[in-house]
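Submission sheet (multi-component)
Chains listed below:
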Amino acid sequence: MPPTAAPLTAERILEATEDVLRRHGPAKATVVDVARELGVSHGSVYRHFRTKAALREAVIKRWLGRTTETLAGVVEGTGPAPEKLRGWLAALFEAKRHKAGDDPQLFATYSVLVGETSDQVDQHIAILVGQLAVILEEGVRAGEFAPCDIAGRARAVLDATGRFHDPYYAGQWSRPGIDQDFTEVCDLVLRGLRP
Amino acid sequence: MPPTAAPLTAERILEATEDVLRRHGPAKATVVDVARELGVSHGSVYRHFRTKAALREAVIKRWLGRTTETLAGVVEGTGPAPEKLRGWLAALFEAKRHKAGDDPQLFATYSVLVGETSDQVDQHIAILVGQLAVILEEGVRAGEFAPCDIAGRARAVLDATGRFHDPYYAGQWSRPGIDQDFTEVCDLVLRGLRP
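Outcome: structure written.
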């Protein structure tokens, strides 16, 4: 990419990093590779990200953040908690499946990167469990869900639907019958939340 | 191992294969390796298993069969279906965790082998779903579980508890809090089966 007059923002660096990851896989995407991609000195990238680890953490956070932002929109929506929960689970499955199906190379690359930094996975899971907890609380308050240990049950809902969001299962997401399997698990979970 | 006068049964060959797998990992365990282990000609092993693939299939089937046999005992037991289901899920988690914890090298080796032969995985899952279906049917007949599409719901129960039996998650089975997580998911599933 030729040098450009646009200011070198963290966002531009992260976009370029994603391009490098898409084309070259997880082994590449060092600060030097990204600087070359942007046509800038690696010193100017270092001013934003001091190490390769910091750059990778930021790009993973951005990647996972795209999913949690979409889901936050569902949490903030209106309507009965059971419908909201079903919508949230469907949006999570859809977001992951979309990422895996549209750009399998980038998805595989991110899955490797994410697997290397368990902190990021733990933080991502904590955000998802937190969003579920908000929906569960709404439902319990409205008498739509049974009273429960909210945090524990939110984690249980995430665990119980793992086949439809854990990247490990991405190979199964285009199988015939997977949508039926998803509906069956959602039905079981929703039934389990009833008072 | 020195030659022995004991007759060369399929079972003895499979035991020796497992020893070879334990010590050398999945790359080894060819017919020749196993014959050497037994101190017999590879011709005599070939009389039982015609190819390396046939030998591997048989040893995987035996390995997975140990779990399903234990679980079949739970299915055949007496008592209310909800308790039986909880016992079955606990026995499955325990069997897998036991295998993973006692002999991590062999467990990792088998996980690789099993991953290579998706037919065996599909058959194993079908057996587990079949056992769950028997328990669900009992519960529906006794009015303990809500009427449902038995096969679909049995699969949903297996899917919903995947974190506690899919070998992919073996690294999490010794985490503090995993038993609590397991109980939370079981509670949610059992609640979901109620009429």
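Remark: The two ends of chain B are 58 Å apart (CA to CA).
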